[in-house]
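task queued by scheduler; priority normal; single chain, no ligands, no partner chains; default sampling; output format set to structure tokens
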Amino acid sequence: MNVLLWIVQGLLTLMFLMAGAMKLSKSKKELREKLGGWVDQYTDISIKLIGLAELLGAVGLILPMAIGVLPILTPLAAIGLAMTMVGAMKVHYERKEKSKVITNIVLMLLAVFVVIGRLYLAPIV
């Protein structure tokens, strides 16, 4: 179970590192081309804050457990990322972007799996 959790944490980390870095580094125009029109609903600073939350969540999925310092931050990061996906689902559902909602659901469920796994199935010591 521990190996499976590490794999899921690694995959989520890669996904959220890429998503967060893109939101932090690209202009709104570039993001609109890559991610769609939902960016027009938000200010530049809001998009950058979402990107920062994704980036910090990605780091929190791996780093605390990898270095053995405050490993409880790993499931907390996963909770934060799952909540981020709930918000993303709402946005994409309202915009009738079904495929993006499905992607958000999958990412949220993987994050919830990390929470349950790290708290109950393969508890952090």
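post-processing summary
- Helices lie at 2-25, 28-35, 44-67, 73-94, 98-121.
- Residues 2-25 form the longest helix (24 residues).
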